[in-house]
Amino acid sequence: MASKAQVDAPDAVRVEYLLRLGDDSLVLGQRVGEWCGHGPVLEVDISLANLALDLIGQATLLLNAAGDGDRLAFHRDVLDFKNCLLVEQPNGDFAQTIARHLLYTTWQHLLLQRLTNSSDRFLSEFAHKAVKEVAYHRDLASEWTVRLGDGTEESSRRMAEGLDWNWRFVPELFEVDDIQQATIDRGIGPDPRKFEDEYRSAIAAVLSEAQLEAPAEQRPILGGRRGHHSEHLGHLLAVMQFLPRTYPDAVW
User: Fold this and answer.
1) CATH of the domain at 239
2) Number of separate helices (H) and strands (E) present in the chain
3) What is the pLDDT of residue 4?
4) How far is CA 133 from the centre of its chain?
């Protein structure tokens, strides 16, 4: 839980919110980028690489707005990252990756739609641009969910297993702590609780078309926004941060 001093400092609230959004995009971009050269077919390989580039581009803008983007990306330790737990989950097979992308980008798209009305000019302008990219991400994940779910017995099983793995991390997307409440009060960010019903309806519609049942509700896993992460993020950062930390004076 954030301290009262943190919440009372306007700049700190804004920076914290930028970090949360930026870290989400950075970590998911790195995760999706791990598929480069390993996609099931060439078309999918290229699609996933493009998704990763979109996400890294979003992260660059958000983290630069929060401070020194390169330092924030490559020189923070795992406990300093503020991403939600969903985006750091391992790729697993292709179906698990698609399940993660469906669950996150459906939420991200709804968030960005509302963030276009942010009282923060940068975030409003950012959202107007990013919402178009994320609509494509959401649609691609939805289409693949349907293709896999309503495909073969094996593809349906794998899609169901991918959803089951990632489902327990969805409640964190709608958690409102002191920092989140401060952004809501100041009009910086929307209240995610107000679009949770729309989110769940959107996911339910995709699963219905895919001939899949929503997973049973599980004990929610929370804490990513406060720096409490799974072991998966540490492994991801070890790869992502290796070169900048090994050669700190290198210039790209």
Assistant:
1) 1.20.1260.10
2) 11, 0
3) 40
4) 14
Residue 213 in any domain: the answer is: yes
Q: Which residues contact 27 (CB under 8 A, 6 or more apart)?
A: 81, 83, 87, 88, 233, 236
Secondary structure element (H or E) that encloses residue 161, with its range: helix 153-167
Give the whole-angstrom CA distance, residue 82 versus residue 102: 21
Q: In the predicted model, is pLDDT for residue 6 greater than 70?
A: no
Which domain covers residue 138, as residue numbers?
A: 10-246
CA geometry: angle 200, 133, 88, nearest 5 deg: 60
Q: Is residue 252 part of a domain?
A: no
- Into how many domains does the chain fold? 1
Q: Is 5 within a domain?
A: no
- Dump pLDDT digits (tens) for 21-60: 999 999 999 999 999 988 888 888 899 999 999 999 999 9
